[in-house]
Amino acid sequence: MRHGRSQPLPWSSLHPPCPPPRPLALRSTIAGEIRSPEAPLRRLAIALLTMLAGLTLFSSSIQAQDDSDTPETTAIEVGRVDVLQVSGFFDPILVNEIESAIERADADGSQALILQVNSRGTLVDDSVIEDLLDQVATAPIPIGIWVGPNGARFYGTAAQLLAVADVTGMAPGARVGYLGVPLTPDEATIDFGIAEDRLRNGSVGLTDARALDIFKQRIDDDGIPTVSNMLQAMDGYEENGIVLDTTELVVLDNGATRFDTISVVRFSKLSLVDQLFHTVASPPVAYLLLLIGLALLIFEFFTAGVGLAGGIGAACTVLAFTGLAVLPTRPWAAALLMIAMLAFAIDVQVGIPRFWTGAGIVLTVIGSWFLFEPIPGASMRPGWIALFAGIGGITLTFIVGMPSMVRTRFATPTIGREWMIGEEGTVIEDVDPEGVIEVGTARWRARINRATPVSAGGSVRVVAIDGVTLDVEPLEGAARDYREMRNKSDDASTQVDAPGDGAEADQPDSGSETTPEPNAAAEAVSDPESSDLR
After folding, report:
1. Does the domain spanning 414-498+512-534 belong to CATH 2.40.50.140?
2. C-alpha to C-alpha distance for 505 and 490, rounded to whole angstroms
3. Residue range 243-252, pLDDT digits in tens
4. pTM for the full model?
5. Residues 59-82: tens digit of each pLDDT
6. 3-state DSSP call for residue 49?
7. Is-same-fold flag (80-268; 414-498+512-534)?
8. 111 — phi, psi (to 5°)?
C-alpha cells in the first residue's frame, strides 16, 4: 500500500483575503446578528485545515498498521504463464520473436513460457537454429513446447527444439518430423534416441510419438488437446528449486475430480508490422503480390501521370521481393515471370493480343510452377487456388482488360468517335463475325453486322460504334443490296402508275420521285436478296 503524503496548506489559510475596499463601519445583518463580511472565508479556511489534519492522521495510522503487519504476513502471488503463438515457417522474424518472448517472460516474472507451434518448415540457416537451441536450453525459466491444436505440424530443423525444451506435448492429429541431421549447439545435445532415424526424413503422429518416447508430456493421457492441458502437464515441474504451480485438483460434489487453472495465462503473438512481413514470406502471398505488382506497374506505364495504381504496384512488388528473399526462390523462374510481363506489354502497346500475349501466358505458367524450391516436408509450390487466380487473372487482364483500356486511353474522347461512321477500312484479320480492321493508321476490333464474313484484305465500311468495337459492313455487298432494293421499289411503283406501258415499266425515270405502294414494298422486302438488309 502506498504511504500517505501530506499536502500543502491552501493559499487562503496562509494569506487570508484582504477585505474589500469598503468603509470599516459597514456590517451585514443576518438573523438579527451583526457579522463581518470576511467571517465566512475564515470559517472555510478553518474547515479545510481540520480536514487536512484528519486525512494526515488517518494516513499515518494506516501506514503504521501496514508497517507492523509486514513482518508477520507474506502475500501469495499467483504465477503467470506466457503463451506465444508460433505459426508459419520459421523465418528470421519468428526466431527473433521467440528470443524476445523468453527475455520478456523472465523480466516480467512469469513462471514459464509455452510455445504453441504450428510450422511446416524452416527458412533460416542452421546456425540461427543452433543459437535458438542454446537460448531455449539455457533459459532462466522453464520452456514448454505444445504442437497444437488438432492438425498442427512441426517440421524442419526447428523441430529439434523438442529435444531441449523442458516440457513437450502434442495435440491429437498433429505430426512432427523432417528434422534433418541433428545440429550441434554449444549448450545442448540433440538426442531423440531410437526415433532419430525415423524423424530425420519422415514424420510421426501422436501414437508413434508416444511409443518412441519423443515427448516429455508428464501426464498420462491421449495427447494434449488444449493449452489448459499443457498447463496441467507443466504443473509440478521443478527447475532451480522452483516448482511450477499452474493447476489445482478440485473435488466436485459427486466425487469426481478435475484440474482448474490457477495461473494467469497471457497470450502473445507477432506485432502488426512483424506479422505483415511474416505473412509476405509465405509462398502464395509472395507469388500473388509479385504478379499483382508487376501488372499494376505495366498498367501505370500506359496511363497518364503517376497515380494510385503505380503506388500500389510498387508497394506490392517491394513486399513480394521481401518475401522472395526469405523463401527458397529459383531466380530463373522469377526472371521468367518478369520476361512474361514484358511480352504482355509488347502486345498492349500494339493494342491487339497476338504472339507475344501467348508467349507471356506460357512463361507465366512455367515461372509460376517452378518459382519455389521444395524443402523437407513441404513442396512450397502455391496451392491450386493461388495458381488459378494468378495465371487466370493475368491472362484475362492482358487479353481483355489492357487492350480495351489502352484504346480508351489513347482515343479522342473530346471530339468523339462519331466521325468514323461511314469511313472505309481494310480488313487485317478475317471478320467472321469478329476480327481486326485498320481505319486510317489505327487498328480496331471489328464486328460484322450481317452474316457475310469478310476475309483479310477486303474493304468494309463503319456503320456503328459499340464502345471500342466497330460495327462494319462489306462495301460491295452493301452497295449492291441497296441498288437492288431501289430498283425493285421503282419498278413496283411504275407498274402501278402505268400498267399498260411496257416500255416505261422496263425503263423507269430515275429522276422522278415515286412512293411505292404497300404491296410493292412488301414484295421487295420478301425478296431473298434484300431480306438481309437491316
Report:
1. yes
2. 9
3. 888 888 887 8
4. 0.63
5. 444 344 444 343 333 333 567 999
6. helix
7. no
8. -65, -45
